Amino acid sequence: DALRQAEIKRTKTVCTYCGVGCSFEIWTRDRHILKVQPVAEAPANGISTCVKGKFGWDFVNSPQRLTTPLIRENGRFRPASWDEALDRVAQGLRDVARQHGGDAIGFIGSSKASNEEAYLTQKIARLIFGTNNVDNSSRYCQNPATEGLFRTVGYGGDAGTIRDLQKTELIITVGSNLAENHPVIASHIKQSHKHRGQKLLVVDPRKHEMAERADQFLRIKPGTDMVWASAMSKYMFDHGYADEAFLAQRVNQVEAYRASLAPFTLEFASEITGLSVEELTSAAEMIGQAGSVCLLWAMGITQHSHGADASTALSNLLLVTGNYGRPGTGGYPMRGHNNVQGASDFGCLSNVYPGYEKVTDAAIREKWARAWGVTPEELSDQAGADNFMMVQHAHEGKLRAMYITGEETAFSDADSTKVHEAFSRLDFMVVQDIFMSRTAEFADVVLPGCPSVEKEGTFVNTERRIQHFSPAMNPLGDSRPDWWIFTELAARLGHHWNYPNPGAIMAEAAGIAEIFAGVSYERLVGWQSQIWPVLPDGESTPLLYTEKFKFPDGKARLYPLEWQRPMEEADAEYDLMLDNGRMLEHFQSTNQTGQGGRMMSLSPNWFVEISPQLAQARDLKEGEWVELKSRRGTVEVPVVVTDRVAGNVLFIPIHHGKPGVNGLTGEHHDPDVNTPAYKEIAVSMTKLARR
Ligand code: SF4
C-alpha cells in the first residue's frame, strides 16, 4: 500500500471550466486521474469545487484526443510529423502574407489556453505578420461588459475579489445564472445570504436557482436591463439615495448624466421591462437603503445588440450610489471561460497589446516595438479585425487565412451557416486543438495541443487573480503544449525566441506591460497568486478604485445613454423569444464534457423549456417534440414544461444539437463591440408528430 501511495503524484492545478478559477490538487498515477482534492489554501475557492471541477476530467484520456498533427490531402486528413506540419503552416501563412499582406490573416486565440499562450498568439500576429487581427472568445461574451467598465471606471475587470462578495450588504445579479455558470461563487453567496443576513436581488427573464432564493426576483423582459438600471439611477437621484459627496469628489459628468435620465421614469421602465411600478419601487428602495452593493452580471446582459450600453448602465448605477472603491462594493462581470480574462489581459484583442495598452497610441507602439526588437513602423497602427469582422471578411474574400486555437467557432459563433461558408472560402486554415472539433474539419492543417494538466502555465480568473498550474502528466501521444507549438512556428518564420519554459514568456510580458510589472513565477509558487495591477515589488491590487479611477484625472465618468430597442423582437410570424445559456454539467460545445464521460451521463439530452401556460395553449406535453424556426434556420427538440420560464420566452441550452442553437442565431450584433446578439432570437414553435 505504501508503494502504491508513493506512486501517486499530487499536482496543483486550476480548473478549466469557468472563470471562478478554483484551484486544487489533482491526484494521478501515470495517466490515471484518481481524484481532485480541494485544499483550504486555494485562494478563490478554499475547499469548494463544483461537479465539473471534481468529475469533469475524463476528456484528458479520451480516445478522441488528437495525438498527431494532421495535414489535409486530396480532401482527407493524413497524419504528419511535427516538422512537416509546422513547415506547412509556416509556408501557408507566408504565402498568404506575401500575396495579400499580413492583414489577410486572422488569429483567434484560446480562452482556455494559458496567459503565456495568449501572449504568443498576439505576438505572432503583431510582430511576425504586422497585423492586429487577433481576438479571443471574450468577443462572444464579455467585451460589452469590459466596454461598460472602460467608459465609466477604467479597468476591464471585477472591482474586487470573490471573497469581498461576502462583505457586501446587497448582492444584485443581472442576467447571470450563477448557480450553474459560477457554482462556487453562488455557494459563497448562498452562505452569506443564509447565515449573515446578506440581501439578494435577482433580475433575469428566467427563474433559475438564485432567483428562487432571492429576497426579490424581477422577471424582466429580455434585452431591457438598460432601462431597468437607468430607472434605478433616476430613482436614486430623485429620492435622496444618490451619494452626492462621492459624486462631487470622485465622478465627472454628473449633471449631464442626471439630465439624460429624464425619460427613465418608473412608468416608462414598467412599460419597457414588463415589471410593475411596485416591483421597481421595491427594488429601488432595496438598493438605495443598502450600505454597500456588489453587482454581478453576465451573458444575459452582454449577448444583446446593446450589451455595452446595458453594462454601462449597471456601472452608472453603482457610481450614483457610491458603490465603488470600498470593500464589498463594485461591478463584477462574471467571466465565463477559465481564462477568458487572461486571454484578453495578455493581448488577444484587436485593439490592445497585453495589459490593455492601445495599439493606436504611438508611444505605446514604440515601447512594444523596442521590447520586441523591431521599429514601430513594423507594428500596425490600426486596430485589427475582431472575431466577428474576421468571419465577415472571410465571407467577403478579404481575409484569406485563419489560425484558430482552442475555439469551436464553427459551432459557437452566431449564424453558423454563414461561419461555415466563410471558412470554406479561406485559402488556408490552421486549427490547434485537443480534439477534432467541428472547426477543425474546415482546416488545412490540424495541430494537436495539450490540456492544462499536461503543461505548465498561468490563468487569470474573474477576479483578476493570476494562478500557476503545473503538469500532472506528460502530453498524450505526440500532442504538444500550445506555447511550444507557437515557439516552433515562430522559429520557422525567422523569429528564434527560444523560450525555455512558460516562465520566460511571462517574464517577457511582465517586463513590458505595466499592469503585470511585478508578476513572476517565483511569486506564484504553490498556492500563492497575484491580482493585477501588480506593482513592480509584486504587490497585488485586490480592490480597485480605492483612491483613483483609471482616467487621467483619477475621476470616474457617468456615461449618458439613450434606450435602443433590441434588433430582433417577436412579431406575428416569429412570436416567441428564445433565451439560451449554459447548464451546470456542461461546458460550451461539450467538446470536453461530452466525451462519453461522467458529465455527459449526468445530462445527456437537449431540450427547450416552455412555460405551463404556453404548453397548455399549444397543447404540448413534457417530452413532445417541437420545431423551432427562426429567420435563419430550424432545430428540432423535445420540450420541458417548467415555470422557470414565463410568457413568450423559451430557454434552450447552448451545448447540444446539430446545428445547435447557432443554426437559429443571426448577424445582429452590438455595433459598439461586435458581440453577437445571441440572446435576441425570435422563433416560431410548431408541434411535431411523434418521433
Ligand atoms: Fe471549475 Fe468553475 Fe466549478 Fe470552480 S466553480 S470547479 S472553476 S467549473
From TrEMBL:
Top-rank lineage group of the source organism: Bacteria
EC number: 1.9.6.1
4Fe-4S Mo/W bis-MGD-type domain mapped to chain residues: 8-64
Parent-record interval covered: 254 to 944 of 990
Similarity-based family: Belongs to the complex I 75 kDa subunit family.
Catalytic class of the enzyme: oxidoreductase
GO biological processes: formate metabolic process; nitrate assimilation; respiratory electron transport chain
GO CC annotations, alphabetized: membrane; oxidoreductase complex
Required co-factors: [4Fe-4S] cluster; Mo-bis(molybdopterin guanine dinucleotide); [2Fe-2S] cluster
Function as written in the Swiss-Prot or TrEMBL entry: Catalytic subunit of the periplasmic nitrate reductase complex NapAB. Receives electrons from NapB and catalyzes the reduction of nitrate to nitrite.
Organism: Pantoea latae
Official protein name in the record: nitrate reductase (cytochrome)
Substrates-to-products reaction catalysed: 2 Fe(II)-[cytochrome] + nitrate + 2 H(+) = 2 Fe(III)-[cytochrome] + nitrite + H2O
Molecular function (Gene Ontology), one example: metal ion binding
Alphabetized UniProt keyword annotations: 2Fe-2S, 4Fe-4S, Electron transport, Iron, Iron-sulfur, Metal-binding, Molybdenum, Nitrate assimilation, Oxidoreductase, Periplasm, Repeat, Signal, Transport
